[in-house]
Amino acid sequence: MEVEQLKAVSKNVRKDILTMLTEAGSGHPGGSLSAVELLVELYFNQMKFNPDNTTDPGRDYFILSKGHACPVLYSVLSQLKCVDNKELCTLRKPGSRLQGHPAKDKNLPGIEVSTGSLGYGLSIGVGVALGIKSRQGANRVYVMMGDGEQQEGSIWEAAMSAGHLKLDNLCAIVDYNNLQIDGKISDVMGVEPLADKYRAFGWHTVEIDGHDFKQISKAYAEAKSTKSRPTMILARTIKGKGVSFMENNVDWHGKVPSKEQRDMALKELEK
Amino acid sequence: MVEVLGKKATRFGFGEGLLELGKKNPKVFALGADTAASVALNIFAEAFPERFVNVGVAEQNMMGVAAGLAVAGWIPYAATYGVFAAGRPWEQIRTTICYSNLNVKIGGSHSGVMVGPDGATHQALEEIAIMRCLPNMTVIVPCDMVETKKATMEASRIDGPVYIRYGRESVPIITSEKTPFKIGRAEVLTEGKDVAIMACGTMVYEALVAAEALESKGIGARVVNVHTIKPIDEKTIADAARECGAVVTAEEHQIHGGFGSAVAEVLVKNAPVPVEMVGIMDVFGESGNPADLMKHFKLKDTDIVRAVEKVLKRK
Predict the structure, then answer these.
(1) Catalytic residue at B59?
(2) How far is CA B196 from each of CA A118, B73, B183, B257, B303, rounded to the nearest angstrom?
(3) Domain range B187-313, CATH architecture
(4) B60 in contact with A, Cβ within 8 Å
C-alpha cells in the first residue's frame, strides 16, 4: 500500500478511535492515537496476516503489550474486515468482544493473547519467537510496548533472554510518546538511554519518527534483514497525535472526549 | 502395616513423567529457571535439548515465555521451586496464562517444610491457595513419586493451565502403576465409617498410618486421597462426610486458603459436618531436617490421630 493510502487508512483509524472511545465513555485515547501509523504500516504492508484466517499457522504474530491502546488495534482489525465496523461501538460494554484490554477468551479474530497488565508482552513475544524457531518456522513476531512500560522489571528479563537466544524473528516497538499517567516519563522514572540499554542486552536498535511512513517501513525492513539479533524500534511519537487539543497533553492518557470534543476532533481530522 | 513400595522424591516422578511424555508427544517443551537439575527437569533436557530452554533466574519471564510457546502451539512445562513457580510470577500466571486459558503446565517443586535446611524462604506453603483461586487452573498435589509421574503425563491431556505441586525430599511410595488415577477424582484408600480423613500430597501416607493407629483403637477411618484440589471431587468428599459424620483434613501447606479450606467449601454446601484441619498453622517454616520439621509443625500421623479424637467429640 502506498503512503497516501496509508495516510487515508490512518485517518479512518483515528476517527474510529475517537468515535468508539466517546461511545464507551472511558478508555485511553492518547496512547492509541500515538500508535496509529506504526500499526497501520505493520498490518497493511509488513505482517503476514490473512484477515479471513487469523489463526493460519503461517501468520506473523502481533502482541499489544500496551493493551490499554487496544482501540487502535480494534480499529485496524476492523479496517481489515476482521471485525465489523459497527462492533467497534460495543467497546467496553457488557458482553462485548472488545474488552477494555485485549481478551483472548472473547475470541475476537486477531487477538493472540490477553494483555494489558504492563511488562508482560515482551516475554510472550520471546516465547512465540522461540516456539517458531524451534519448529523451523519462518514467521515473525511483533510486540508493541509503551515507553512508561519500560519501567517494569520483567521487560528486562525478557530483553535479556531475547538477546541471549538471538531471536532475529522478534521485532519490538516502543511507542515513545514521552508521557505516562503521572506525567513526563523523565520526571516520573526516567528510562533513558533506552537505545543503549537494548543494545547492551544484545539487540539491534533503530530510532525513528513513529508517524513517518517511510521511516517506519524502513525500520521494519531493517528488522527483517537483521540476523542473530532481535530488533527494537524506538519510535518517537506524539501522544494524542492528530487532535491538537490532545497532543502532548498527559490529561488525555485515560480520559475520553465529550461528544462536542469528539465532533471538534473529527472536524480537525477532516481538514 | 501401610504397604510401602519404596521411597523416592516426587520430583523424580515429574522428571520421569516428562521424559516419557516427551517421547510420546513431540509438542512437549520444557522450561527451567536455573534449578533444572534440582527439580528433575534435566532428565528431559538431556534427552530433548532442542525442546528445552533455561531462562536463568527469571521466573516472571519463564511464565511469559511459556505462554508464548503455548500461543505458538507447543505444550510447555515450566518448573522450579514452588515459591518461585507460583509466587513470584503469580500475576503472569493469572493474567497471561489463566485469563488466556493457555496450555501451560507448571511444576512447583520443593513444596512444604520437607524442603528442610534451606528454611522458610524456600519452603512453599501457600501455592495451593494462590493457584486454586485462579479461573481455568487445575491444581494437582500427588501423594508420591508414582502418582506425580501419572499427574505429569495426564496433565498434557487437559487443554489449559495445570499446576502440579511436588517435593524434593524422599517420601514413601504408596501407589503403583495399577492404582487408579484420574484428574478430578478422589480415591478412597481405606473403608471406614467413623471419620473421613481427606489428605493430599505427603500427608496421604501420614493419614494411612494414622488410620492404622485408629483402627487399633476401634475407630474406622476412611482415608481419601484428594490429589486434585481443583476441580475438586465434590461427590466423593460429600459422600464420605455424610457417611462418616466427621472430617479431618491434612496438608503440608498453610491452613488458610489451602486444601482444608477447599474441602470445607464443599462440606458447608453439601454436608456440614464437624471438621478439624491439620496443616501449617499460619506461621512460616524454618531450617531443620525434614523429619524433625514434620514433627515440629505437627504434621505427623500422631497429629492426625489427635485431630480425629478432637473431631469425634464434636460429632
Answers:
(1) yes
(2) 46, 43, 21, 20, 15
(3) 3-Layer(aba) Sandwich (3.40)
(4) yes
Catalogue all structural domains in chain A, each as residue range(s) with its CATH number. Answer: 3-270 (3.40.50.970)
CATH 3.40.50.920 domain residues, chain B: 187-313
The reported pLDDT for the residue numbered A271 is: 85
Phi then psi for residue A81, to 5 deg, are 70, 20
Query: Which part of chain B has CATH 3.40.50.970?
Result: 7-172
- The reported pTM is 0.97
Q: What is the ipTM of this complex?
A: 0.97
What lies within 8 Å, CB to CB, of A102 at 6+ separation is A64, A67, A70, A73, A108, A111, A113, A114, A115, A116
Distance from CA of B102 to the nearest CA of A (A): 9
pLDDT in tens, A187-238: 999 999 999 999 999 999 999 999 999 999 999 999 999 999 999 999 999 9
Q: What CATH number does the domain located at B7-172 have? A: 3.40.50.970
- Cα separation, B247 vs B186, in Å, equals 15
**Residue B78: φ, ψ to 5°:** -110, 130
Q: What span, in angstroms and rounded, lies between the C-alpha atoms of B155 and B20?
A: 13
Supply φ then ψ for residue A142, to 5 degrees: -120, 135
Among B16, B20, B59, B191, the active-site one is: B59
